[in-house]
Amino acid sequence: MYECRVRILMIIICLVNFTAADDVETCSGIVPTTERTDKIMITDYGGVGDGKTVNTKAFREAIYRIQQLRREGGTVLYIPAGVFLTDSFNLTSHMTLYLASGAVIRATQDTSNWPLTDPLPSYGRGRERQGGRYMSFILGDGVHDVTITGENGTIDGQGDVWWNKWRHKTLQYTRPHLIEFMHSTHISISNVVFKNSPFWTIHPVYCSNVVVRYVTILAPADSPNTDGVDPDSSSNVCIEDSYISNGDDMVAIKSGWDEYGIAYGRSSSNITIRRVTGSSPFAGIAIGSETSGGVENVLVEHINLTQMGVGIHIKTNVGRGGYIRNISISDVYIQNARKGIKIAGDVGDHPDNKFNPNANPVVQDIFLRNVQGEKILQAGLIKGIKKSPFRNICLSDISFYVPKTKYTPWECSDVEGSSLKVSPSPCSELVSTHANGFCFTQIRDFKLLQNSSGVPV
Length: 457
Hints:
The chain is about 15% helix and about 45% strand. It has helices at about 1-20, 55-70, 160-165, 260-265, 435-445, 445-455, and strands spanning about 40, 50-55, 75-80, 80-85, 90, 95-100, 105, 115, 135, 140, 145-150, 155, 180, 185-190, 190-195, 200-205, 210-215, 215-220, 235-245, 250-255, 270-285, 295-315, 325-345, 360-385, 390-400, 410-415, 415-425.
């Protein structure tokens, strides 16, 4: 059944590629297209695509060769059809990892020798466990001008061995990401299927100018923490035209964890998420909960979600510090969800007991318009922080079909804002009209504001 679903979704992503005409609005131009003429093949370095041979030596030698060649314009590492089993490996600058049709790069499941790496400084420890973390399956650290693309070949993390360790509480360190870029610029990821990540799937952290477009991300609905795309303390990020069906948030913007994120002080900013479709038992589009470095200037539009936990989820907590501001979300359709919209200040755990309980996050200038949904158990829950109420929460043209349930349609506390054409009627805190002029002028002019502030559109 799962493989059948994969084939169906491959058809969907191909149709998305076909129908995305040149005149469709896109932010992908922030990373110029690189046409590389120099090419080497993994089979030239001893790679065997039989699904049994471990090809770690072949991958590492081929990438080392690219690094040494330093060809003008860079070099393509071509992966032909076949299943190439390998341990983790690093990418280098000025390269393209190209997966032909039928090509699979598959992670080994021998976790005993999986390399360890330091925790991220903005997290202070592994996200799941104290201490370090397992190295990501494919890592680019301090690289520039890197492309991962192809003909919808697959990168398969074989994450079930890691999920079982998590379920049985036998993890020694935080699980590896499937793809991670750190301290890197001009990264392009497109036309690849990412499957069964051990942990978060695509994780750009401390990066700038990143494009993720025309990708399919798959993991079972019960797979723990298999987030789709997680921009983290990164700027100028474009996520478009993709399908995600996984076990955690489809897209989650982050920027560090409590006192470590505050000290590191790098925000996530100028992020566009557009034409993303999918399903998840958690959130479709999430901001948080780790937002201690701040998140600002985010545009989300043309999103289609089904079988969701929460459609749109903005989440933080006391002790986080930081800010979430200038967020525009529009043209979203949600079907079958526990909650349509959730904006909450009591979500997420802490790395340790050293966080400052007086470090209250600031959440303001959140604009949601033209959000439609059916079979939504609760339209919205907006729960601010008593010492730091959420301000300028602006709702316009929101319509949810909410069947009779135990939930009230809207629950609100410690929030200020306004609404226009919202059904079912929102809570009293958002019925006020004094902020209408500010809210709806901002909604109308948001793209103009983005252009002036550098947000990719």
